[in-house]
User: Fold this.
Amino acid sequence: MGSLNRVELIGNLGKQPEIKKVNSNNKVATFTLATTEPAYTLQNGTQVQEKTEWHNIVAWGGCASIAERFLKKGQQVYVEGKMKTRSYDNKNGQKCYITEVICEKIILLSNGGGSKAEQSQPVQLETESN
Assistant:
């Protein structure tokens, strides 16, 4: 049997996407996405606090262009892609690891403001990824 590397996240952008041009005209966008598990109470009365996870998202090519044009800090989005872990040596020569989601699809779930009616209309902005 084969394997599957697929990630689906719905969360809020932690900051504006950072856009860089690489090679000749290829773009890469990086941004963080926060997903939050709500607080709840166990049957024994123990309260479990809300927990937020931060995800590093990397978008290339067409997805990077979409991120550059449409994504704003605080906006709720759906991101689909695959997990990738890479390593690098920091300035002290220590090996560091970072796990990222390589974005293949973005759907806007809110426009970052406006009425609830506007925010409830998803806008799918999909493009072929590199």
About this structure: Strands lie at 7-13, 18-22, 26-37, 40-41, 47-48, 51-60, 76-89, 95-108, 123-126. The two ends are 26 Å apart (CA to CA).
